[in-house]
Amino acid sequence: MPPKTQLDRLAIGLMLVFCTIWGVQQVAVKIASAGISPVWQAGLRSIGAALLVWAWSALRGVRLFERDGTLLPGLLAGLLFAGEFALLFLGLQFTTASRGVIFLYTAPFVVALGAVWLLPHEHMRRAQWTGMGLAFAGVLALFGENLLHPAGRAWIGDLMVFAAAVLWAGTTLTVKASALARVSAEKMLLYQLAVSALALPLLSLLLGEPGVFAPTPAVWASLAFQTVAVASASYLGWFWLIRHYPATRLSSFSFLTPVMGVLAGGLLLGETLTPAVFAALALVGTGIWVANRPGRR
Q1: In this predicted model, what pLDDT tens digit does every residue of 190-199 receive, in sequence order?
Q2: Where do the H-state alpha helices sit in 146-294?
Q3: Chain segment 96-134, per-residue pLDDT in tens
Q4: Which class for 15: exposed (0-12), middle (13-18), buried (19 or more C-beta within 10 A)?
Q5: Orientation of helix 97-104 relative to helix 154-177, angle to 10°
Q6: 20 to 30 A Cα–Cα from 50, which one of 71, 149, 236, 260?
Q7: Is 287 inside a domain boundary?
Q8: Is 35 a member of any domain?
Q9: Structural domain tally of the chain?
Q10: Which of 194, 196, 186, 195 is nearest to 235 (CA)?
Q11: Distances (CA, A) of 233 to 18, 168, 185, 257, 285
């Protein structure tokens, strides 16, 4: 499949599914955190997902170990991936989840800025910047009130989550601008899962986390969902999309994820859904539409 310059119905449909899965992941992480330490949880997820992606690749006959110039960028992407989740989970120990969402979803802007130098063929038009601004305004409408009331050392967590956003964007740009863009999505993802499967458990041990301290069926089910649906299936689909479609256009869809997370919290955990949720959804949807309209010729 040759690279495309616009998102078609397949890409849009997949991104809607993935953003919904990533939104539900926010609920799954909350449930699993009641019985598994944060960084250890991320490490277990990477270990399980790496085994699943390797098994999937073996069944499909995907070549994973041939020399194709991807070793160095693959290791870099893996370190960025591991660092992103370590900083995210650690940062949320200092700041609130709602503040963290705002800083994390600066990542699409970092992708757009990096694309100016690394992906000149994905030059952002004014309408795309406007659309991303509208989508981010939707995130601010949902969570922005919490920015005005920092507590204690929240700024430390804010900085760590923002750093996680930069690493998330760095992973996307590394994949798109290197030899990784020419290999299978399985190999692309396996680099990241394998490196994080080694790095995150070691970091957890260094931090003195207790690991699995209160295992329950709900905790294991939440970890299984993260491993199978999120880190294996959805990430595999995401990197397939990154290989074939413009990264800047795909990144604009990520603003849907926090809104889907709040909706999932309302449906699955009984959390209150205020009018701001639906206003945010409208703003994000409008922003995505504006950002992905075909340009005038």
Answers
A1: 999 999 999 9
A2: 154-177, 185-206, 217-225, 235-244, 247-252, 256-268, 275-291
A3: 666 777 788 888 888 888 888 888 777 777 888 888 888
A4: buried
A5: 30
A6: 260
A7: yes
A8: yes
A9: 1
A10: 186
A11: 9, 18, 11, 16, 24
Buried b (16+ CB within 10 A) or exposed e, 200-215: bbebbeeeebeebeee
Cα distance between residue 76 and residue 82, in whole Å: 10
* pLDDT tens string 201-236: 999 999 899 999 998 999 999 999 999 999 999 999
The answer to whether 144 and 260 have CB atoms below 8 angstroms apart is no
Is the pTM here over 0.90, yes or no? no
Place of tokens 């859904």: 273
Handedness of CA 285, 246, 21, 74 (dihedral sign): negative
| Domain with 179 in it | 9-291
Domain assignment present for 297: no
On whether residue 132 sits in a domain, the answer given is: yes
| C-alpha span between 95 and 110 (Å, rounded) | 21
**CA–CA separation, 96 vs 176, rounded Å?**
32
Closest C-alpha to 20, from 224, 228, 243, 230: 230
* 103, two tokens: 């800083």
